[in-house]
Design a protein that fits this description.
The protein is of the alpha+beta class and 123 residues long. Helices cover 44% and strands 38% of the residues. A hairpin with a 2-residue loop joins strand 2 and strand 3. The N and C termini lie far apart (53 Å).
């Protein structure tokens, strides 16, 4: 079975405490593992302001998961998102070779070091 690379970002309601948020994230990790997905990278972006209010909420907990999986996994994952009332929004995208290269460079911190170099030159 051919594996494709995906990236999913979901926003959880800000009414959760830290433990509830971690339990919810673990539930989605488990959905991926049960459907034979390999989690490549994961980032917790924390509580952030939304661009516009959703369900009368102006903030939410953002979480990103990058994974490789068969194409059928996306349906199971998005069904789990839709069934969970703690999820405010979600987006899952398939990654091409350019996005994979960009994500690899971002994880290595290449873009942060470039920004610091530019700050030093500007000073």
């Amino acid at each position: 079975m051919e594996l494709k690379n995906y990236e999913t970002i979901f926003i959880l309601t800000p009414l959760l405490n830290e433990v509830q948020m971690q339990e919810t994230v673990e539930k989605f990790r488990q959905v991926l593992k049960e459907n034979s997905a390999d989690i490549i990278h994961e980032e917790n972006w924390g509580l952030r302001k939304l661009a516009y209010p959703i369900q009368k909420k102006s903030t939410g907990f953002y979480h990103l998961i990058e994974f490789a999986a068969p194409t059928t996994v996306v349906d199971a994952l998005e069904l789990a998102y839709r069934r969970d009332e703690k999820v405010v929004r979600f987006l899952t995208t398939a990654l091409d070779k350019h996005a994979l290269a960009y994500n690899e460079r971002r994880r290595k911190g290449e873009f942060k070091s470039q920004a610091k170099k530019e700050e030093v030159k500007a000073s």
